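Long-time lurker, first post. I've been practising inverse folding by hand and with some scripts of my own, and I keep getting stuck on stretches where the structure tokens seem ambiguous. Below is the full token string for one chain I'm working on. Before anyone asks, I'm not after the true native sequence, just a reasonable design that respects the backbone. If someone could post their per-position residues I'd love to compare against what I wrote down in my notebook.
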């Protein structure tokens, strides 16, 4: 079982930056693929970014490419999402997720952190 706890959300203005953090309570963190998802009001949850277990590989949704950066620190069991040039369209609850070694999908989810971007 993996428990994930996100932090760092808040209310910011358009153009601002924000960094989200997600701490995982597992000794096997370094073998998990980690990802960030978001869900805006009235919309389905969508993929934002993912990072390989080593941190050398990452991928992004087209809507955030060039503005968001995912990274991880395996020594701290933490994955980050740096969000630059935020727009009101980025307003959503952001969720951290973990895909354990051998899993075909993300199996564990955090409770989410709210990000609100005002215009």
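-- Answer (accepted) --
I ran through it position by position. Result:
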């Amino acid at each position: 079982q993996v428990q994930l706890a996100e932090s760092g959300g808040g209310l910011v203005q358009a153009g601002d930056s924000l960094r989200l953090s997600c701490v995982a309570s597992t000794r096997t963190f370094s073998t998990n693929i980690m990802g960030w998802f978001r869900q805006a009001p009235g919309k389905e949850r969508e993929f934002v970014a993912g990072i390989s277990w080593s941190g050398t590989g990452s991928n992004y949704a087209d809507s955030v490419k060039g503005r968001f950066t995912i990274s991880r620190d395996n020594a701290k069991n933490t994955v980050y999402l740096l969000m630059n040039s935020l727009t009101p369209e980025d307003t959503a609850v952001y969720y951290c997720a973990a895909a354990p070694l051998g899993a075909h999908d993300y199996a564990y989810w955090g409770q989410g952190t709210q990000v609100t971007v005002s215009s």
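A couple of notes from the structure itself: The longest strand covers residues 18-25. The mean pLDDT is 95. Happy to go over any region you disagree with.
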